[in-house]
Write a structure and sequence with these properties.
There is one protein chain. By secondary structure, this protein is of the alpha/beta class. It has three domains: 89 residues, Winged helix-like DNA-binding domain superfamily/Winged helix DNA-binding domain (Arc Repressor Mutant, subunit A), CATH 1.10.10.10; 122 residues, Aspartate Aminotransferase, domain 1, CATH 3.90.1150.10; 242 residues, Aspartate Aminotransferase, domain 2. The chain is built from 17 helices and 16 strands. The chain has an eight-stranded mixed beta sheet with strand order 4-11-10-9-8-5-6-7, with helices on both faces. Strands 12-13-16-15 form a four-stranded antiparallel beta sheet. A hairpin with a 3-residue loop joins strand 1 and strand 2. The longest helix has 31 residues. 42% of the residues are buried.
């Protein structure tokens, strides 16, 4: 019924009152029965072409009349006047339901646990792991960072052991802004928020920009952590297929026209998991489509500095856009040390205030000591020195992975040859289900990331991600050989089963 709701902007009756009256009539006439979930305020406002606050006022008026009940994370539901109607999924008090049935939808929604599922595999100590998108532990600059933190303690220990600014350590924010300006971005330190890794950066941006039920356009497949964050918020995830250059602009335009989202999330450089890199032309086309539809772009540049093939990368979306409609985020976890848990968000000034407010609620700020130590390390040229040492090793390990797959993987298996990053993306023939392969490989002491964890729509059973950066070449050789043997055995069994079926004679 609300799909056909019309408003009259020329009427003397306020618009919010028109909406509330229409809902009440629908309830009285039985067109909207008790228990009906009203559209999210932003969705209805977008469809009617009005300000969201007007719809909020309409729902408030209905609540004052006792016609709706709102439940955080679930929505706003119609009720009969004076009733004690319980919305679906809300047990009545004293009905004997165990206390743990009361968890919020944020942790019960499908897809929320996929990041934890992957993390448990990633942090496992069993066998040879190609699972985590982590840098190599044997290459971490432990001693230089220890000296940097120690030096910061000597210089300003009392200050660094207290609470710091919620937005982050000012010198580190200035360093980040200066580094991005060298890459063509326009910003200052006030547009930088330091976070506890890129995962918190993502969650903060999503929570500031979207409400439950809002559509968000993503690449298909995409980063597992983004999917988990979006599912926890109850977002409506809209996947746009990728090709060799990333998200397809033609299909993006269709998705934006059909779903009217406020947000696009993508990774234009070394896309996780497919490893694709967008050309500058494709980046400009994506930005143009987003501009036409007045859509904000969230650019996740998790590994742009992990380029080891010598070719210059295209400018970031943030640089090309001038930072007008692009929210940029990155991390020091992938290019340096995961244990630092330091990432950052770069956003337009009007977005920074709600981001900082939410960050304050979350944790009152990232560790001042670790931020100061990282800044001292960066100022001394530590990151450049680390990358000069690490990138040739990553290149060697990538090449060892490519060579081993050529030797051991059966015909029909395809993979990407990334020009940077930490992993490769593998596609297997239909005979191989990667969930079954995962269990078989685990028994043999080899771990990888199943492709279905990166898909929002339930696909990906014919794909897997192999991280090469963290393993020495002899482990890469052994692990790929094991995977190849298992794939060959599965495909051989499939062929034998097919031959047996072909030879079978039906009984007449």
């Amino acid at each position: 019924m609300l799909d056909q709701l019309q408003i009259d902007l020329e009427s003397p009756v306020p618009v919010y009152r028109q909406i509330a009256d229409a809902v009440r009539r629908g309830l009285e006439q039985g067109e909207l029965p008790p228990g009906t979930r009203l559209p999210p305020t932003r969705d209805l406002a977008r469809r009617l072409g009005i300000n969201r606050n007007t719809v909020v006022s309409a729902y408030d008026a209905l609540a004052q009349e006792g016609l709706v009940q709102s439940h955080t994370g679930r929505g706003t539901f119609l009720v009969s006047p004076g009733s004690d109607y319980e919305t679906p999924g809300n047990p009545a008090p004293g009905d004997g339901t165990p206390w743990f049935s009361g968890f919020s939808r944020a942790v019960e929604r499908a897809g929320v646990g996929r990041l934890l599922s992957m993390y448990r595999v990633v942090t496992s100590k069993e066998g040879i792991s190609f699972a985590g998108s982590y840098p190599a532990s044997d290459l971490m600059p432990v001693e230089p960072l220890r000296k940097a933190i120690s030096g910061s303690m000597k210089e300003a220990g009392e200050e660094l052991l207290g609470y710091g600014p919620t937005a982050g350590h000012e010198p580190l924010r200035r360093w980040i802004a200066g580094s991005m300006r060298k890459q063509g971005s326009v910003l200052d330190a006030d547009q930088v928020l330091v976070t506890n890794g890129a995962q918190q950066a993502l969650e903060l941006v999503f929570r500031v920009m979207i409400d439950t039920g809002d559509p968000v356009v993503i690449e298909e497949p995409t980063y597992t952590g983004a999917l988990s964050a979006l599912h926890s918020l109850g977002a409506r995830v809209v996947g746009v297929p990728v090709d060799a250059e990333g998200m397809r602009p033609d299909l993006l335009a269709v998705a934006l026209e059909r779903h009217r989202p406020r947000l696009i999330y993508l990774q234009p450089t070394f896309q996780n998991p497919t490893t694709s890199v967008m050309s500058e032309a494709r980046r400009r086309e994506i930005l143009a489509v987003a501009e036409r539809h007045r859509c904000v772009v969230v650019e996740d540049d998790w590994g742009g500095e992990l380029c080891f093939d010598g070719k210059p990368l295209p400018p970031s979306l943030h640089a090309l856009d001038g930072g007008r409609r692009v929210i940029y985020l990155s991390t020091f976890s992938k290019k340096l040390l995961p244990g630092l848990r330091i990432g950052f968000v770069v956003a337009p000034p009007e977005v920074m205030e709600p981001l900082i407010s939410l960050k304050q609620i979350r944790d009152c700020g990232t560790s001042p000591l670790l931020q100061a130590g990282l800044h001292r390390f960066l100022q001394s040229g530590g990151l450049n020195e680390h990358l000069r040492h690490a990138l040739p090793v990553y290149r060697e390990r990538r090449d060892a992975t490519m060579a081993a797959m050529e030797r051991y993987f059966p015909p029909g298996v395809r993979w990407t040859r990334p020009s940077g990053g930490l992993f490769t993306w593998v596609t297997v023939p239909p005979a191989i289900n990667t969930t079954d392969l995962f269990e078989s490989a685990r028994r043999e002491g080899v771990l990888f990331s199943r492709g279905e964890l990166f898909h929002s729509g339930g696909g990906g059973s014919d794909t897997l991600r192999l991280t090469f950066a963290g393993n020495p070449t002899h482990e890469i050789e052994s692990g790929i050989k094991t995977l190849g043997s298992l794939m060959t055995a599965i495909m051989g069994k499939d062929e034998r089963d097919g031959e047996a079926a072909a030879r079978a004679v039906p009984i007449l």
